[in-house]
Amino acid sequence: MVVVIVIGVLATLIMPTLFGRAGKARKAVAAQKITSMETAIQLFEQDYGRFPETLQELVEQPADVPADQWSPPTLKAKDLKDPWGNDFVYQFPGSNFTYDLVSLGADGAEGGEGEAADVTNY
After folding, report:
1. Which of 43, 63, 66, 90 is most buried by its number of CB atoms within 10 A?
2. Residue 19 in this model has a pLDDT that exceeds 60
3. Which tens digits make up the pLDDT trace of 92-113?
């Protein structure tokens, strides 16, 4: 019985630390994905002379790009989702930068703190 109580107390002390690290790791992954998308957007603009209208154009051939000019995408469709499974928000022209990329965090809503905080490219 004492062993079970000791294990319970230790689990209570350790669990908040582990959950906090998971949230930080997800935020870091979101920031890394935003950096990858920025690179893909810059390549897209160099190749086609315009910025993508949507993030989907980074993974699928746009209608106005001929097949012989289409370069294989540097991203996959799964890269357009943040670590919480939400779509990244892309705005062109951006309010803060040439274009804005945003992960709305764990809660999927603007603002927030901790794991629910937005991760942006600005």
Report:
1. 90
2. no
3. 999 999 999 999 999 999 999 9
Amino acid (1-letter code) at residue 101: L
State the residue range of the domain holding 99. Answer: 2-120
| Whether 40 contacts 73, CB under 8 Å | yes
CA distance 69 to 88: 27
Q: How many domains are there within the chain?
A: 1
**Per-residue pLDDT averaged across 31-53, rounded?**
96
CATH label of the domain that carries residue 97: 3.30.700.10
The closest of 14, 91, 74 to 39, measured between CA atoms, is: 74
